[in-house]
Automatic annotation (TrEMBL), chains A, B, C, D:
Record protein name field: Ergothioneine biosynthesis protein EgtB
Stored NCBIfam families: egtB_TIGR03440
This protein's pathway: Amino-acid biosynthesis; ergothioneine biosynthesis
Family annotation (Gene3D superfamilies): paralog of FGE (formylglycine-generating enzyme)
Domain Sulfatase-modifying factor enzyme-like: 175-308, 315-387
BP terms from Gene Ontology: ergothioneine biosynthetic process
InterPro entries on file: CTDL_fold (IPR016187), DinB-like (IPR024775), EgtB (IPR017806), Sulfatase_Mod_Factor_Kinase (IPR051043), SUMF_dom (IPR005532), SUMF_sf (IPR042095)
One Pfam family from the record: DinB_2
UniProt domain DinB-like: residue ranges: 11-142
Species: Christiangramia sabulilitoris
Annotated keywords: Iron, Oxidoreductase
């Protein structure tokens, strides 16, 4: 657990980071929601602020005056009903509150939080909530990047976000197969550092021996799969995957475009030539699985990944695993409102391990369990093979 | 047909009006599209400008340089494919081009148009297209009001548009039944003034005798219908209407809210007490029809309305008629791109006659044929009864 | 109005006809419902029988014992809720009651009806309901043919219904254009013979002069339209029609198949070569309209058709008109349960005039107003042109 | 592996069983398909027969003459396209081939198979396919029971199947908690007896210690959950489960009806009083999970179930586990067409262990891995708790 002083530092840095990420946007970019799982940037900025006001200031800062009791509820995750007036709506339809209002709201809450963390010596309980709040906002920072990419990358004008953000880290080293011996291993979060509830419940796992690649699959390798007809061979795909690629006419990773017979990739720096040496990204679990079938190999389980990860580089792509997202053997759902955080998603999702180019500082660790539905592609996903 | 000088005046006034309507908006309000038939205000501003550049300047202003050939296409009504790069999208997902960009685009095109109309003596053909362009923009001005109302009125914060716009004109006169004798009447546009293709084809119509109310149905009368269980009596409704009210849980006009047991109505001035004397609005054809059934009366046909209209006040509500939208007996679809304008909508729609509080100056006339699907309610619709 | 004796004859003939139509079916053919607007033949047989028991025997035959009070309700048109046990279902899911049960039910009700019509001298009121019941069953006979065609014609084995039913009557006469003079005409049902409520309200109509073809459009002519790219020219189509043909990949009339490069048509006699001289059928209003646009002509209104029909042959195809289905000027909705019969469908439908090869004996007349949604094709529809 | 003689016996018994199950049906019951995952009984009878003709007779019986080359393809699982004539359809729309045809087809194929198995000494390869074919047909026998229950139980007349089939075996013994010690266990199929590919790959699994109930959860216990508001407490449910119960208005197990304030259950013997001591059935994984949450317990993993199962009675309900359906560590997808059998379903499904009252003789074993989507309820599902 961090000291109050360190936590204050983490809080300040986290709040500033969210605003820095959005500093490259036009006002209009904050507003739209092109698909359901992408949220408007202004909602991310408001929601992460509401979290601190709702769970910290309201509870632990006596006499705290709400910034605006009539408005903040729109930043709850579920805000369908308010008092007697019920309006069904969704995030992408809301032009109000404005972006300027949200920045004022942020400033107000940030200031009050700094006051709280500076003036008083707080108990462990509030400190813990502040820490969760910071990590919660860091999760939303990753979503900010990927949602912004979706918003700009699906605009027919292909506007760029900025020139600095680097999506594609080249792996300039040789392929090697890292061997792990059969045996009983320990899985789960061990240290006192922050982690989510779903990483807890340290437990033993029996692993058969396996070999895992030190490199992620690249754009060039994935292009071979496309050119070999991988998207057309029903035997490589799960039954649900096959329906999905037919219905959505999927035949390449997201953000790939064939323009005048040459392959382009939309990145946060704009539309660029596809780099065959960069790790492939924006692929679904289904596509990662089909590629592995085609190679006669498979994806790692999350436990295999966790045990092997010390021996390879990771951190530029969230890596799909074969593991369905389930509770660890000793999983205990936390009490109270924060208890909803992870457990309720433990069905029909696949675990991803690692971190990505969009992951915030201090927000990646080897036991982190990310999870998405198997068809989703808007994150910086990737994969490595096991044989 | 207007003189070139008058047309220049009409053009200037029209362009200014669109911008004045939007002057009360925040940037965010220009962007969202909460339902399919509501367009973002920025799209209206861009589309009406694109119209003048595409159909006037490109054709009749030699050497005209396009403001931005890579961007303007998004303001075409159908812009799904562009060259080899195809991106499916819709208007409410587009954060770019920005509002500022669109105002620059407007300024450029407006200036070029004024130059053209000032410096040269133009032929009838371009003048005619300019006139259509002005009326086209006036139609979009009406849509701007109703789309803005939808955007703000479906926001849970119920923000107001401004304090000036008056939606509800009280009819402070007694109900009278205006009688029209059986006989042959002439229907359609007669003068040389501007009208749309669908009003042309002056023709004779045999009308049976009828009596029509000099007053629109009011909120108070409609409330009686609600309280008498009108929304629950299947015998009052068309079969398709019944399905529609069940599936959408329709039990009151749009923008009505029951708050703490008293009826409120969202207006462009914000949420207000329902005025029982104001003409009811934001009702579908289905609801107008069911109300008439309940009263043992009926809606007028469009020809009955056209013949009787001289004897009553109209202009605050678009009035539903019983008439399906069909071509007049001598209808000729215009040649070329503008030929698509009206004919292709002549199925499954009902005619509305009159004009509304949102109709632009110089844009209402007794022969005007508006049309919408029978379930739509976002316009300032209303109705009067015939017996 | 028919005498009781003649009505008895009509009743017997009608009941026998329904069973004769079904005599060519296998038990399995009675059960399925491939699309929503096609009902299983066993439902038609049960529903027409339920009508006589519910509206005649229950009311006018004192002491009538219901055949089975627990079962017959499934033959009501709307049977979603029964007592406290509510089961949502639809007609094509119901394997029970069995076909054998339904024939027993028919026999019981037919016998009781014959008793009633034979033994007593009935008042006008019950006689009128019996007459409506017979015409109601005749309507279902037409639907039996077209629903059976749908069921068999959409089976990949293309089974035939029988060898006798003749769908395609060749028009072996020359094309002529019949001229009707401008003037006031009388529209609506005049005689004392049976008609539906929607034909009543004799009224005057002013018609402009027009010329109408004495021949229906043929398969050969429609093939020219296809080969000229008619299905690909957006300018020929209503906006809603264009969406419909895109979404449903419509590019030919229903039941047409191109097999080994030659055109076949599924008929009730099985799959056959397309006869270019037969009148085209199973086309939607949208397709009829687009064809007329392509020819530079139009469809007749229902009044034009009614006035001109004495001068041409009709009766093998229901003919699409340009008229939307609306009440006649003096239309009065009948009182009571039978009042729902026609009025509630008077929106979003187009009128068809004439009759078809599937129309029952004594069930066609020049004032008959049939109506369907503009995209429907499973009836024996056709059309003729006006210029 | 069975001897050829034993296999012949298994084959005969299996073929006879399918027909005995259907002997209680009316012809109409064979035809309908009320929901997508329920197949018409006639399809099951045809499909299992097609399997033997396609994979055994065609390959291993030289000179075999197909019963009907134009028809049998409709019993392939995927029969959308045939030669050049493509008709989209689904199983429940097909009235042909008839039930009588299918029984003739069965007789022909059964006779030819018996000839083959009687006259020749066959190799291991064909014998293996025959064995799979028998087990394949046994799987369809279970589906026959549950599909028939769906067809009859969703008919508003609640017809019974027969009087003999016993759904509800009472567990007349006390609740006990069986303890399993922490340690490494062996998982997977061991013997030479028949099993599916997904059970192979014997491997070690580390289990933490746990206690599992010797009894299935009963109707009475589940009723307590309902009465305690279990279906209304969002905290008990997965996020996707909550959406599912809202959208489908789920508030009780399938086939339960509250009639005149008392609970009834539709069974294959007709509608009966709910027996509180019978094990609950026709519940989804979501409901089993929510019940366990409510009790503060959990469902077993499939490995826990497999290790503990020797110590409790099972076989009347398929039992939901917490395990997602994934490949075993050493899973190898079989070569060829039969390789599609299991692997392609290994995503988004939960494993069920045990067997049910509908499971065929010789078709249950402790390593059998059944799997369904978490919302499905038409099987005889149940569950037991772990703490």
């Amino acid at each position: 657990m961090l000291s109050q002083q360190d936590l204050l530092q983490l809080f300040k840095e986290t709040r500033a980071d969210s605003e820095r990420i959005c500093s490259f946007l036009e006002t209009e970019d904050y507003v739209v929601q092109p698909v359901e799982n992408v949220s408007p940037p202004k909602w991310h900025l408001g929601h992460t602020t509401w979290f601190f006001e709702e769970f910290v200031l309201k509870k632990y800062s006596p006499g705290h005056e709400l910034y605006d009791k009539n408005t903040a509820y729109v930043f709850n995750s579920y805000y369908e009903s308010v008092g007697e007036k019920v309006i069904r709506t969704n995030r992408g339809n809301l032009s109000r509150p404005t972006v300027a209002w949200i920045y004022e709201f942020r400033k107000y809450v940030t200031t009050k939080m700094i006051d709280l963390l500076t003036r008083n010596k707080l108990d462990q309980e509030p400190l813990k909530v502040v820490e969760i709040g910071c990590h919660h906002e860091k999760q939303h920072q990753e979503l900010l990047y990927t949602d912004i990419k979706y918003i700009l990358g699906n605009n027919p004008l292909s506007p760029k976000y900025n020139d600095e953000f680097k999506e594609n880290r080249i792996q300039d080293f040789e392929r090697e197969w890292i061997t792990v011996e059969e045996g009983v291993y320990e899985i789960g979060h061990k240290s006192d550092d922050f982690c989510y509830d779903n990483e807890l419940g340290l437990h033993k796992k029996y692993l058969c021996g396996f070999s895992i690649s030190n490199k992620l699959v690249t754009n060039g390798e994935f292009l071979e799969f496309i050119e070999a007809g991988g998207y057309k061979d029903v035997l490589l795909w799960h039954a649900e995957a096959w329906d999905w690629i037919q219905q959505n006419e999927i035949n390449k990773p997201a953000y790939w475009h064939k323009v005048n017979n040459s392959w382009k990739q939309y990145t946060l720096n704009g539309l660029q030539d596809l780099n065959p040496d960069a790790p492939v990204t924006h692929i679904s679990y289904y596509e990662a699985f089909a590629f592995a079938q085609w190679k006669g190999m498979r994806l790692p389980t999350e436990e295999e990944w966790e045990i092997a990860q010390e021996k390879f580089e990771w951190g530029s792509r969230w890596e799909w695993t074969e593991s369905a997202y389930s509770p660890y053997p000793n999983y205990k759902k936390p009490e109270g409102a924060l208890g909803e955080y992870n457990g309720k998603f433990m069905v029909n999702q696949k675990v991803l391990r690692g971190a990505s180019v969009a992951t915030s500082r201090h927000h990646s660790r080897s036991t982190y369990r990310n999870f998405f539905h198997p068809q989703l592609r808007w994150q910086f996903t990737g994969f490595r093979l096991v044989k």
